[in-house]
Specification:
CATH class of the largest domain: Mainly Beta
Number of domains: 2
Radius of gyration: 19 Å
Mean pLDDT: 91
Strand content: 15-25%
Shape: elongated
Distance between the termini: 34 Å
Number of helices: 5
Helix content: 25-40%
Number of strands: 8
């Protein structure tokens, strides 16, 4: 499929009553598609998806369209959202330790590149702290500076390790033995396959 077909197909997966905070609807997006403003339509479809959960096929189509348009960050975001549906996702409020108090002296990328270790309360068979790995996406920011604070999304490498977490729980981020940051869980979304049948 070419870009217009992918975007049209994705837009058909959005319920008509869905609207962004600025009251943009699927009807508005069709106007952009008619005028070949594909990058705008893509961005608005991504924004519409914040209003309600949309199926995996929606994100797969957007990812392919973003790749064809060579919009790297948008493609990475759409692939990230596909992974969230498959593997589950945790949103949290992260505060990094200041550069003077931590090993990290440089900003972290906000686009899901970093895969730090997290102390989420597990112990090893010998009773020592056991950590779990999760990729990190910083919402609405290209980078997060040392000492900075942001809402993040975590994509667990092993989703089953994270099932006990609930909103309000504090976890710590590690890039080595020292604490690199502290996060408070805001939301927990289980993998699509792990959701109970209705």
């Amino acid at each position: 499929m070419d870009v217009p077909e992918l975007l049209e197909s994705a837009s058909l997966l959005v319920p008509e009553e869905t609207a962004t905070e600025n009251d943009i609807t699927v009807g508005d997006i069709w106007d952009y598609l008619v005028h070949d403003e594909w990058d705008v339509a893509l961005a608005l479809l991504e924004e519409l998806a914040d209003a309600r959960p949309l199926p995996l096929a929606f994100w797969e189509k957007l990812a392919e369209a973003a790749e064809q348009l060579r919009l790297e960050r948008s493609a990475a975001w759409c692939h990230w959202r596909c992974s969230e549906i498959r593997n589950g996702m945790i949103r949290a409020d992260l505060t990094l330790r200041p550069a003077a108090e931590a090993r990290r002296k440089t900003p972290i990328s906000g686009a899901g590149v970093l895969r730090p270790m997290w102390d989420i309360g597990h112990l090893s068979p010998t009773g020592e702290r056991a950590v779990s790995v999760a990729a990190l996406w910083v919402e609405n920011m290209p980078v997060l500076e040392p000492g900075g604070r942001a809402t993040i999304r975590l994509l667990p490498l092993t989703p089953s390790h994270w099932t006990h977490l609930q909103p309000g729980r504090q976890i710590t981020m590690h890039e080595d033995r020292s604490v690199a940051g502290t996060a408070v869980i805001l939301e927990v979304h289980r993998p699509a396959a792990a959701k109970p049948a209705r």
